[in-house]
Specification:
- This protein is an alpha+beta fold and 295 residues long.
- The protein has 2 domains: 178 residues, Thrombin, subunit H (Beta Barrel), CATH 2.40.10; 85 residues, Pdz3 Domain.
- 20% of the residues lie in helices and 39% in strands.
- It is built from 5 helices and 20 strands.
- The longest helix is centred in the last third of the chain and has 33 residues.
- It is elongated and about 65 Å long.
């Protein structure tokens, strides 16, 4: 199915329950959300019921019954060289490719955009990279970063570890020492690819369209060479038997796309649906207690 945000196609979706629960890529969901099912011309309004930052998955809900369930593959992730297809609303696949790298962890790669002093005893900024998060937040050469989100920073290695544990786009609160005074600043992190970018490789990777904003920091991902757009993520990817082996989660390069394996997706879905159920029960409980008081 196709998912629209404020009228623009933003992602694909994967039906996970016959009552209208759909999993998709969370970071693409902005504004008014609508879904278009295969064989339908009308769009159905949807709402977000739960998100999972670790996998960048979200569960959305439409009003529906008897939707076809996704036929998940319960076996091992496909081997390198296996053929995969990304379905479309029509009978013709949106994209076809092969597994190029076996499932592996993709760590976060948040970046502040600073060069640090060689001395490790204090996280002192030697230079600020133009256009990056540090400059936008107001950091300057000579500043010493003392804390990140309340965690005391005792040197450059600890600072680097703390920053790289965050995803690009996340906000961090910094306590900085400048000329003997303490300042508190907020920075929205960029990515290591921005910090270490090479114009030639950037051009080659972005041939054919934009890359996904969130394309790192996944607990486990299968790399394949299917050509996708960021708006093609969130939907299923299938093997030659038509079994769903996972959900496409990011376009990371010209011929580099990532899919979360079915085992990761199903585990996340179960967790998110329990979150929705718990929230609903809490809401019902509150209504029941209020009703009891009124009686």
């Amino acid at each position: 199915m196709q998912i629209y945000c404020d009228g623009y196609r933003a992602a694909l979706g994967t039906i996970v329950r016959s009552d209208g629960h759909i999993v998709t890529k969370a970071s693409e969901l902005k504004g008014k959300i609508e879904c278009q099912l295969a064989g339908e011309t009308q769009k159905r309004e949807a709402r977000i019921v739960a998100r999972d930052p670790a996998t960048d998955l979200a569960i959305i809900k439409i009003e529906a019954t008897n939707l076809p369930m996704t036929p998940w593959n319960s076996g091992e992730p496909p081997a390198v060289g296996s053929w995969l297809a990304t379905p479309d609303l029509s009978r013709i696949p949106r994209s076809i490719g092969v597994v190029s790298v076996a499932a592996r962890k993709l760590p976060p790669n948040g970046a502040l955009g600073i060069r640090l002093d060689q001395e490790d005893s204090a996280a002192r900024i030697a230079a600020v990279v133009a256009g990056m998060a540090a400059e936008k937040a107001g950091l300057a050469a000579g500043d010493i970063i003392r804390k990140i989100d309340g965690e005391e920073i005792k040197g450059s290695p600890q600072l680097q570890q703390a920053i790289r544990a965050h995803h690009p786009g996340e906000k961090v609160t910094l306590v900085v020492e400048r000329d003997g005074k303490s300042l508190t600043l907020e920075a929205t992190l960029g990515s290591m690819s921005e910090l270490l970018h090479d114009e030639r490789s950037d051009f080659q990777n972005s041939l054919g369209g934009k890359l996904s904003e969130r394309r790192t920091g996944f607990p486990l991902a299968i790399q394949h060479d299917s050509f996708l757009q960021p708006s093609d993520c969130g939907g299923p990817i299938v093997d030659i038997d038509g079994k769903v082996i996972g959900v496409n989660i990011a376009r990371a390069g010209r011929v580099e796309s990532y899919a979360l394996p079915a085992s990761v997706v199903r585990e996340t879905i179960d967790k998110l649906l329990k979150t929705e159920l718990t929230s609903a029960q809490a809401g019902d409980g509150g209504a029941t207690r209020k009703s009891g008081q009124e009686r």
